[in-house]
Every structure is written in C-alpha cells, then in structure tokens.
C-alpha cells in the first residue's frame, strides 16, 4: 500500500464541488434580479444558502423575502459566467468596483428567459430544468462577507424529461446539474453507485 504524504495548503476558496444556482429575486422597483451562487444545501424542504453581504440579492431578500432557485445544466455555464461579474446594485460596492459592473437586466445579459413563478414574486429561469420557489424564514448575520439564508420551498418545478415516469422523483440519470469546483464548471459524469434508499435505483435498469 502506498502512503500518501498530504500537503498542508491554504487555497483561496474551498468550493470542492457545489451546485451552481441562479437565484431570482425582485428589486425595489419591481424588476427582476438574477445572480449566480454556489453555496447551497438542503434539509428536507428547507434550503440553506450563502449570500454575499454587499450584493443586491441579499438586499432584495431582506426587503422582499422570496426567491427562486434555478439549477442550470452544464451547457449553460456560459450564461452563468456572463453575469458572474455583474451586480444589480447601481452603487457598485468599493470592494467589487475593480471587477464588477452594474447590469440592470441580468436575464438579458445572460441570454436567459424569465418565467412567472406560481407562489412567489421573483421569476424562474425558463431554461433551467429544475426550479424551486421559496420564502425566506431566517437570515443569520455575522459570518464574514456572507449571511446564511434559510428558506422554505413552496414549489418544485421539473422538466418532465428528468422525472422518473409516474413518480415525483428526479431521475439523476436524466438530470445533470452544473458543479462548481475550485472556480471551474463541470457536469457530474457517469454514475458510480447509489444509496439503498434511492427512489430511482431501478428506473434505468
């Protein structure tokens, strides 16, 4: 057996592999805002999101506590990247001024289509096969440059092509999120196995 001698390192980010999201919110003037994010996990139907303190998205959910979470497939990584260095804030924060620019219509800049939500005001992203509508339950401050936003999902919308027929289950063999790993975009590749509790283990057999 080969002994691995690990290196002690200090990488600039710890995004070891997280899903890319496009978060829809509503601006004070009623127009939609769209922002990429990749800090996400879920407990049942509760979402936990990490949002930057100086971004328009966090401002919006504090004032209007609703959002949509849209998961783009890997083929849309260019759309995500097109708005990655933009902000909905007219007053671009000094810390972002060197790299970010204000864009009022993020949907147009990304080449994406707003789609009306059913239970919340912010729009969904039509091109995303998996979309969540949610209402903010709590925002926790004091975490450096980020706040933790907890939101309760009100509805899940899925393209029929990624749903196991006759069920409410997403078939992971048919659906592929975009994974953000150390500032690179990836698909998830082939399946290696599944948990015994999988809802779709036999769907592709």
Automatic annotation (TrEMBL):
Residues covered by the Flavin reductase like domain: 16-188
Recorded GO MF terms: FMN binding; oxidoreductase activity, acting on the CH-NH group of donors, NAD or NADP as acceptor
Pfam families to which the protein is assigned, alphabetical: Flavin_Reduct
InterPro entries with a match to the protein in the record: Flavin_Rdtase-like_dom, Flavoredoxin, Split_barrel_FMN-bd
The organism's place on the tree of life at top rank: Bacteria
UniProtKB keywords: Flavoprotein
Keyword Flavoprotein: yes
Cofactor(s) recorded in Swiss-Prot or TrEMBL: FMN
Family: Belongs to the flavoredoxin family.
Protein name in the entry: Flavin reductase like domain-containing protein
UniProt organism field: Microbacterium barkeri
């Amino acid at each position: 057996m080969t002994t691995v001698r690990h290196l002690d390192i200090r990488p600039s980010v710890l995004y070891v592999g997280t899903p890319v999201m496009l978060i829809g919110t509503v601006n004070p003037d009623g127009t939609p805002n769209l922002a990429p994010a990749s800090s996400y996990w879920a407990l049942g139907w509760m979402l936990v999101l990490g949002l930057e303190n100086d971004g328009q998205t966090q401002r919006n959910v504090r004032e209007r506590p609703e959002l949509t979470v849209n998961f783009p497939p890997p083929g849309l990584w260019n759309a995500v990247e097109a708005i990655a260095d933009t902000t909905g804030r007219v007053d671009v924060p000094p810390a972002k001024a060197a790299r970010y620019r204000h864009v009022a219509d993020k949907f147009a800049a990304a080449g994406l289509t707003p789609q009306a939500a059913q239970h919340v005001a912010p729009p969904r992203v039509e091109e995303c096969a998996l979309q969540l509508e949610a209402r903010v339950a709590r925002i926790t401050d004091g975490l450096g440059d980020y706040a933790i936003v907890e939101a309760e999902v009100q509805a899940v919308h899925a393209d029929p092509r990624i749903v196991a027929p006759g069920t409410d289950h997403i078939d992971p063999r048919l659906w592929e999120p975009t994974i953000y790993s150390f500032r690179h975009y990836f698909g998830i590749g082939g399946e290696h196995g599944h948990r015994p509790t999988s809802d779709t283990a036999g769907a592709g057999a």
